[in-house]
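Quick one: structure tokens for this chain, please?
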Amino acid sequence: MAEKDSQNPDIFGQALLDFYNENYTEDITVISSLTEDDEIPVPYLFRSYEEMPLVEQEALELAQGKTLDIGACAGSHSLYLQDKGIDVLALDISEGAIEVCKNRGVKNTVVSDVLDYDENGYDTLLLMMNGTGIFQTLKNTEGYLSHLRSLLKPGGQILVDSSDIAFMYEEEDGSYWRDASRDYYGEVTFKIQYKEQTSLAFDWLYLDYKTLKTEAKKAGFTCEKICDGPHYDFLARLIKTTS
């Protein structure tokens, strides 16, 4: 979402830096292909463990061993794991986000797209805040999962949350409409705005659990649902198979 040129500004990074440096004056606006504009409150990105939803708390309790926090944002998950004594590396494509992670005390960080990152030997990969979003589209999912698999030790785990957004297509009569231009109903296109800057459009993927399990099996994982959240969201654990 955050590239290093003026055409696609590091919006999350700038918003995080502004909040950290006490220059917070507005939130991030999300422009969606599916719904009306929404906002991401910047303070929420700095939430404590107690302020996190159940699916995130459960994931943090299951994380173990050498851990990669993918899409670390302001570092809230990394800091919690670090305080527990877990060897965690915060990864984000946003330079501003990683600067904030460092300023907040995250010891190990890297600025990178996860597909460009190839250090392996991890016990846990953490993908939170609708972690399946980084796959972008359903057809990309197996490829992303295969790359993530290469980063894991045998028996290593991916902890990922997502949401089944089928409810957003339901009509008043109980029927469902579908966007014929999409391969899968969980594919959404977003732009984000902050302080008069707007990102380029990017694809984001919401996967239902059944589809995630199918894609995980293709990529060499077993998959189990750990828990459901209060609004069609869930946490899943993918385990790297030995075959």
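The longest strand covers residues 152-163.
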